[in-house]
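ESCALATION

Customer reports they have been waiting on this structure for their group meeting. Please prioritize. Original submission:
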Amino acid sequence: MNGIALADGSIHRINCDEKRAVIFDIDDTLVDTNYRTLHILQKAGKELHLNALIELEYPKVDFFCSVTVKNAGIKDPALLEKICGHFDPDPRKNTMYQSVWGKSFYSDPEELHFDHVMAGAPDFVNRIMKETDAKIIYVTGRSEEQQTQGTIEELAYYGFPGFNGDQSACASLVMKPQSYLGDDTSFKKAITIALQQTGVTILAAFDDSASNANMFRDIFPAKVLVVRPNRNVADTAKNRPGIEQITNYYLNATVDAKTGVRSVSSNEDQLTDMIQRAIRIDTDGSLI
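Update from on-call: job pushed to the front of the queue and completed.
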């Protein structure tokens, strides 16, 4: 694979230069990182002699480290800061990456081995690539310097196109370089605009982050699909109009607002409709 600079990122091209593309985030869009967090915090519990973390179980793990640690029963602000740090848009005040959890989660390639693939994700990514005749572009905030090889191995292990041995696959991997000081949303926006400026038409974008999904919705024409995979079925308040939400690539779980009753159903028809709509998007983002 050859790396080329593009909008402060590095693109690793595989096999093609297709001008129609579908963007996929990786963490919590294609793989479940809660298992990574679980392992990191259990290990931290042993190092810090905290039984609450040693005995932590998956159901208590949240997307946010601090919520997870609080779910485990740890409330001390100083200890929370040591374990999880906190995010701040000002890089000088952002302590998340220097925390016990952050140093492992964002920098240790060995921890990627604890991720679990999202249900149905490899099959769906392969399917949308083939049926739309588009390139798959994986755009991730993972560290280019420290996690590239681990990410390539993970994508290959789970059979994602570009890394599964299919020589006809058309894919690219874009990772965030250490020199980029902005947040993930600004990074992904810069990459996306740069791709558009090179003549790439984006057919759809899949990203679990509400901030990223909203950014995609703002910069894409209305007919371009923006999809937010989200295991927290009740978390829809942050989604702008025009963002679709799925639980995974097999099914959707919903919760009745009045009764709190949870139900699960296949989302095959919804996914098929997404692909058909993507097929019909022309180079200007309108429907053919």
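Sent to customer with the following note: The two ends are 34 Å apart (CA to CA).
Escalation resolved.
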